[in-house]
Amino acid sequence: MAWLAKNRGVTIKAQTVGAGPTAASPVAAARSARASNGLKEFLWLLNDVEHGRLLDLGPVWQSTVGFFTERGFRVSTDDLLRTWKDFCGAEEARLREEAGANNGFEVPREEIADRFLEYSLAYPPEDFHAILAWDLFDYLDDELLPRVIARLYDVLRPGGLVLGVFHSRTAEKFHRYRILDPLSLELVPAPGYCPHRRIFQNREILNLFGQFRSSKTFVGRDQLREGLFVK
Amino acid sequence: MWRKQTEARPSTPKAETYAPPVAAPRAPQAVEHMTSPVSVPVPSSGATRLTPGISVKGAFSGQADMFVDGELEGSVNLPESSVTVGQNGRVSADIAAREIIVQGAVHGNLHGRERVLLGRSSRVNGDVETQRIMIEDGARFRGHITMVRVKEKQPVADTSKEEAPASLGAVSLRPKEGLS
Question: What span, in angstroms and rounded, lies between the C-alpha atoms of A204 and A158?
Answer without folding.
Answer: 23
